[in-house]
Here is the input.
Amino acid sequence: RQDLGHLYGAGQVTVKMASATTSHEATLRDLSEGGLGIDLACRIDEFQHFKVGLVLGRDKIIAGAQVRHVRQSGHGFTAGLKFINLEPSIHDAIADMYAAKVLRHGY
Here is the structure.
């Protein structure tokens, strides 16, 4: 989605995901302290665990996440992942950057 890329100064934000058996690249759709929404080309399984990584501006986020829902959309799939044991510093960085961007851009 263009709105999040614009919010963080990029066209699209790539999310890299890896589990013990597979890896994927996705596009960030939504982000909060609780988790993230992504668009991806292939289906992933609900409740699967991944390590996710993404860069927003100058901030790098790496965290564990569990797939909570997946649905087919357009040319691929949309999924929601819940962060698992998110480090407090990453939680605070997401909260701070989102609040700052929302206030600055009026989203």
Remarks:
- The two ends are 14 Å apart (CA to CA).
